[in-house]
């Protein structure tokens, strides 16, 4: 997942607060390492420290399969601007968000799956849905409901 990140950005990830960690639950490193199924299927790419001091797994990827997981919000760096939250918007934070998005899109391009009919594909596109303004009760400005 981070293989094509420049070294200075990997350094920034380990030294700067550039990931949006807005959660109350997660898998601690201890629980992850103690679970044979998790440990054998996923590799830990990063950990982070919660406000209570617990070290949790913040990024992981499948050992054999293209499965990825993050316990942070890469989308907020580029798209969320609510002044009541400390969304990271530094140059490095936006760069991480952009590179991760590119990585995930490129992973999707590897799939040979496709819609059998153009009409079916058109119905599945995000453009057929309307986002709902939610900033008056959520940290997110818009949400899609499916």
TrEMBL record:
Gene3D superfamilies: 3.40.50.880. Pfam families: GATase. One of its GO terms (biological process) is tetrahydrofolylpolyglutamate metabolic process. It comes from Bagarius yarrelli (Goonch). The keyword Amino-acid biosynthesis does not apply. One of its GO terms (cellular component) is vacuole. The active site is at 73 (proton donor). Keywords: Hydrolase. This is Gamma-glutamyl hydrolase. InterPro entries: Class_I_gatase-like, GATASE, Pept_C26_g-glut_hydrolase. One of its GO terms (molecular function) is gamma-glutamyl-peptidase activity. Residues 8-85 form the Glutamine amidotransferase domain. It comes from the Eukaryota.
């Amino acid at each position: 997942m981070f293989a094509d990140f420049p070294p200075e950005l990997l350094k920034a990830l380990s030294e700067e607060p550039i990931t949006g960690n807005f959660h109350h639950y997660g898998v601690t490193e201890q629980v992850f390492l103690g679970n044979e199924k998790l440990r054998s299927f996923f590799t830990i790419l990063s950990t982070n420290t919660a406000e209570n001091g617990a070290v949790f797994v913040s990024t992981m990827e499948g050992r054999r399969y293209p499965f990825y997981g993050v316990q942070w919000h890469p989308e907020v760096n580029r798209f969320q601007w609510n002044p009541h939250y400390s969304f990271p918007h530094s140059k490095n934070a936006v760069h991480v968000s952009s590179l991760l998005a590119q990585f995930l899109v490129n992973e999707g391009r590897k799939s040979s799956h496709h819609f059998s009919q153009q009409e079916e594909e058109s119905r599945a596109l995000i453009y057929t849905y309307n986002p709902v303004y939610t900033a008056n009760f959520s940290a997110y400005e818009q949400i899609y409901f499916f």
